[in-house]
Amino acid sequence: MVSLCSYCPLPSTKALQISPSFLFLRNPRFLPFTFSSILRRSSISSSAAKHREPIRTSYAGVQLEETVDEITQGKLRLDSWISSRIQGISRARVQSSIKSGLVTVNGRVVDKVSHSLRAGDKVNCVISDLQPLKAEPEDITLDIVFEDDHVLVVNKPPHMVVHPAPGNANGTLVNGVLHHCSLPTAALSEKEVLSDTEDVSGDEEGFYRGTSAGEASVRPGIVHRLDKGTSGLLVVAKFKQHTIQRVYISLTCGVPSANAGRVDVPIGRDSNNRIRMVAVPGLSHHGRARHAASRYKVIEVLAGGGSALVQWRLETGRTHQIRAHAKYIGIPLLGDEVYGGTKNMALSLLRPRTPPKYNAELSQLVSRLERPYLHALVLGFKHPHSGEKMQFSCPPPPDFREILSHLRQIGIEKPISKE
């Protein structure tokens, strides 16, 4: 596969202090390309209460016996309700227990995770033992940007899951990497198994570990993870590795009040929805929330202020960090149904600012939103063997470029710098 991505050594400060329109990365450094040049180059080619227990590290054998209270709105799924009653447990773990026949409703075994509960239903659940999850090598086409004996840089398409997880054991990036590196089946520990909603971009060890001299000498690992819906650059280290630079671009619902800024707000798990994180000031002193900091900069104001092209630079790497921080400052990512960037939200912001001649096109555009429009544009790291500072850039995929193009047609302006 011919890749549109590029590699360039980290440039000197002097050489790059040319124009403020260049992509800001690490103060006062700039990359030797602009957003427009990347996009132009790419266009050439085509709320229930919790079960009051401390957060556990192991859930095997935990038993729940409760009666469902009055249901205030809509349908209530069995897996969702159980997850809300046992603090800290993943929905995937609950689903595994349900499928194993360990859950009864009114005395009858129910093995359908989406079973609808009614007020007064008596639920009995025993959490099953965690079964080891194995990643099998699969012949999956990967868009490899760079590879040597030590690292592998991949341009991940949207909708590809990075790590195998319960209910999603095949077709992941890890499966493809195992095959590409000619490695045997890899076992993932409970700590390493994440749902496809995770976006842990921190410096973490990889998923494959040899423990003796007789085991594989090549041990690739996902240094940082990207959401299932997020596209862009991801590094796989054949030995332990740390990223030093990660820059993303996104399309947002609305425009932030300040054209550039730093969001320094801790992020923790939303107590009402396990698959969602929440940014709350002061939360780092409570529970399992962790320090999180992101810098953002508005590159283009789109559709009269109904949307924006925003650059993000991460100082930390937390689950859903950009998505949670974007919601916190009032600009959820376009297409991000989990964090408020819904189709209705997009329409409510775009329609009043769109000339009537674009109304039909706008409705079609919003109807096609199917993921959070977030792309890992730039990736930098120090090579584990040579020590060279390496840097890669990769344009966003066609769906991102198409949405951006339509929004630009409605209206585009550069943000006004405030002195």
From TrEMBL:
Residue ranges annotated for the RNA-binding S4 domain, each copy included: 76-141
Gene3D superfamilies referenced in this protein's UniProt entry, alphabetically: Pseudouridine synthase, RNA-binding S4 domain
GO biological processes: enzyme-directed rRNA pseudouridine synthesis
Pfam families in UniProt: PseudoU_synth_2, S4
Gene Ontology molecular function: pseudouridine synthase activity; RNA binding
Biased composition (Acidic residues): 195-205
Region span, Disordered: 192-212
SMART domains given in the database record: S4
Main EC class the enzyme belongs to: isomerase
Reaction catalyzed: a uridine in RNA = a pseudouridine in RNA
EC number(s) per entry: 5.4.99.-
Keywords (A to Z) from UniProt: Isomerase, RNA-binding
Active site: 227
Function as written in the Swiss-Prot or TrEMBL entry: Responsible for synthesis of pseudouridine from uracil.
Similarity comment: Belongs to the pseudouridine synthase RluA family.
Protein name from the UniProt record: Pseudouridine synthase
Native source organism of the sequence: Hibiscus trionum
